Amino acid sequence: MIRKNEERKKLITAGILGMLTAMALAACANPFTGDGNPKNVSSPSPTRYDTGFELTGPDSYDSADTAILVDRNAQENTLTFLNLELGRRYTLSLDGTTRLYDKYGDGITLDQVQKGDIVDITFLKSKKHLTSLKLSPQAWSFEGAERYEINMVRNEVSIGSEVFKLTSNTQFLSEGRSIESMDLNPSDVLTFLGIGSQVLTVRVDKGHGYLRLENDENFVGGWIEIGQTKIQRITNDMLVLVPEGSYQVNISNKGGGGVKSVVIRRNEETVLDIGDLEIPEPQYGMVLFSMNPSSAELYIDGAKVDPSGPVSLEYGLHQLIARAEGYQSITQYIRVGKESTGIDVVLDANKTDKEEESSQESSSGQTTVNYYKVYIDAPERVEVYLDGNYMGISPCSFEKIAGTHVVTLRKTGYTTRSYTIEVDSEAKDISYSFADLVDSSSSGDSSVTDIWKEILDLLN
After folding, report:
1. One digit per residue, pLDDT tens: the chain, 460 residues?
2. What is the DSSP string of 238-272?
């Protein structure tokens, strides 16, 4: 009996020791402090199972780049970038783990990122997955620029006193679509984006449309003033390129005319009927010009006049050009509206010793290359306008005048297109062939087309 009791005690003691050992091991595996909070110790890794899914985040990347955002596919949830060094495009996917930042590091949404933006990105190259995107802090921008000069011959952009270079990577965009550099017009309001001395994106903020006059027979030879942006002589069948917006249009000829309101929409043609405007009996005013220097030549509406005595001019708007050797020529517009008036014309001396090539200047101040022509070969059978003036039906030609000009192509039922060209001063003919015009019935809002495409894809 005593032996059985001792054996029982041994079994109980062994059991108690086993329980204490198990509790000690449990405490080591998940220890707690006296206040019930877990201690700061490592816990063993749980068993891992391969599910084929790997979670990515802003810290999960193996590649980085500074690039231009050139496209977005909302249906596939991808972004396409242009590498600046190699000029190559590549596409990355994005999801809820992708982080988007402005140039200061603050979070933004994808709607705040535009095509043409210069961005710093990180991504998993093996997964083609975008982990982070930040508007590049090293990129500069000039937004809403109205005063600039683009020279496609030298591939330069002058903005104020600064000069930048256009590159093979430069993107030209309008309403989110890629365009050619020739589609830009000097009247467009643009945003420029770049790094260092290079312009990498040119975006059209405010484009242009077209204005056609109807029933204008009595005003041919007169003047059209469109807001504060454009003054032009009225010619037969003219088509005037105008920045988009609302304007007061002043029509004048021989003291008659009037003011009308128009709204110009981007890439659309607006017709303005001026048949109800009247021209009274012509009235004349005597204008006495004071010329400085006295040797300066004076041209009114392209005709040379003698400024030594009063000049009789019809009431209305007139173009004045004055020039003299060793002085800077001026071109301005004057309005005659009373019986007599006086106008002072003062020319500034040239800043260089080079003589003006006045013998090569036309009455409008442009350089004319005699006997040579510009040919418009394609597309065929469309109306051709040069700086708003009707030139004929293509193929056609016109006098070669060196400088920057706007060629407009128009055909009923098709979308009107304009191209800015740089005409050289070489003694030879030049020719241009442009893309075919697009049927206006099939050139609607591409965003609507994209929506229908997405619906059809979902149905299929």
Report:
1. 445 555 555 555 555 555 555 554 444 444 433 343 444 444 444 444 443 444 555 567 999 999 999 999 999 999 999 999 999 999 999 999 999 999 999 999 999 999 999 999 999 999 999 999 999 999 999 999 998 999 888 899 999 889 999 999 999 999 989 999 989 998 899 999 999 999 999 999 999 999 999 999 989 989 999 988 788 999 989 999 999 999 999 999 887 899 999 999 998 999 999 999 988 777 889 999 999 999 999 999 888 999 999 999 988 888 889 999 989 888 888 888 888 889 999 998 886 544 444 434 444 444 444 568 899 999 999 999 999 999 889 999 898 988 889 999 999 899 999 999 988 888 899 999 999 999 887 654 444 444 444 444 444 4
2. -EEEEESEEEEEEEEETTEEEEEEEEE-TT-EEEE
Sign of the dihedral defined by the CA atoms of residues 190, 191, 196, 199, in that order: negative
Evaluate whether 163 touches 157 at the Cβ level (below 8 Å).
Answer: yes
Residues 6+ apart with CB under 8 A from 173: 115, 116, 179, 201, 202, 203, 204
CA-to-CA distance for 447 and 445, rounded, in angstroms?
A: 5
* Distance separating alpha carbons of residues 204 and 359, to the nearest angstrom: 38
Q: Is there a contact between 297 and 322 (Cβ–Cβ < 8 Å)?
A: yes
Q: Is 447 helix (H, G, I), strand (E, B) or coil?
A: helix
The SS3 call for residue 174 is strand
Q: CB–CB of 141/86 below 8 Å?
A: no
Alpha carbons 289 and 291: distance in angstroms, whole number: 6
Contacts of 402 (CB under 8 A, 6+ apart): 366, 367, 368, 369, 423, 424, 425
Backbone angles phi, psi at 54, to 5 degrees: -125, 120
Tokens 């942006």 belong to 229
Q: Which amino acid is at 316?
A: G
4 SS3 class = helix
Selection from 250, 256, 259, 252 nearest residue 278 by Cα: 256
Instruction: Outline where 192-256 has alpha helix (H).
Output: none
Q: Which helix (H) or strand (E) holds 459?
A: helix 446-459
Q: Which structure tokens are listed for 287?
A: 């204008």
Tokens of 226: 């469109």
What dihedral do alpha carbons 252, 254, 256, 257 form, nearest 10°? -20
CA torsion angle for 124, 130, 135, 138 (degrees, to 10)? 20
Question: How far apart, in whole angstroms, are the C-alpha atoms of residue 57 and residue 40?
Answer: 26
